[in-house]
Specification:
Layout (H helix, E strand, L loop, with lengths): L5 H8 L6 H8 L19 H4 L2 H13 L3 E5 L13 E4 L8 E4 L17 E2 L2 E2 L7 H11 L28 E4 L2 E5 L4 H4 L2
Antiparallel strand pairs: 1-7, 2-3, 4-5, 6-7
Helix pairs in contact: 1-2
């Protein structure tokens, strides 16, 4: 289930190779986990989350409201092992409210992110390069004098993109002895 207007996405992407994006938005985005090993679960959250349980509870409540997570479950809801990665609160620029992060890189060497290849995506060579100041300057120079630019933080942008249901068992977290499934893309998963 997605809140995206997939008919419109299909229409605008029909002549592009990227039309597969609409299938990912409809059925869930593959996170490209390719290891044969099941990552190590960590039932205890990082200290930053444990020190402020009210804030963690608020983040969970917001994600439940926006259907970005599923739960709570007292036991593993899957027919296979689920992987529980810790949550943490990370300071956010220009805000007094920290961001909740699902740490898919913990523990080092046995994490979900350790099973995700960096140089390919869905068997295709891939190199992610996020735009930086150099590309912004190049863009402004190309557009010329009078060029207008703006920056917009799309709050909850990634948390609207569903995760592929075939690997959702890798996207679990815990709070107060309950299991939650993070059913939408986690920013930390993307920053691998």
């Amino acid at each position: 289930m997605t809140m995206f207007n997939l008919e419109r996405w299909n229409y605008y992407l029909q002549d592009y190779d990227d039309v597969i994006v609409t299938k990912f938005l409809q059925y869930g985005w593959p996170i490209n986990y390719s290891s044969d090993q099941i990552p190590c679960s960590k039932l205890i959250n990082h200290p930053s989350a444990c020190q402020n349980p009210a804030l963690l509870h608020d983040h969970i409540a917001q994600d439940l409201k926006h259907k970005a997570i599923i739960g709570p479950f007292r036991n593993n809801p899957f027919s296979t092992d689920c992987v529980i990665s810790p949550l943490q609160n990370v300071p956010k620029r220009d805000s007094s409210v920290p961001r909740m992060v699902h740490d898919l890189s913990f523990p080092a060497g046995q994490s979900v992110n350790d099973g995700i290849t960096r140089d390919e995506y869905l068997t295709q060579p891939f190199k992610l390069r996020l735009p930086g100041v150099d590309r912004l300057v190049e863009f402004i120079n190309r557009k010329g004098p009078g060029c207008l630019t703006f920056k917009k933080d799309l709050k909850r942008a990634y948390r609207q993109i569903p995760v592929d249901s075939m690997i959702i068992y890798l996207e679990c977290a815990s709070m107060a002895s309950f299991i939650f499934i993070l059913s939408c893309v986690s920013v930390y998963a993307l920053q691998h």
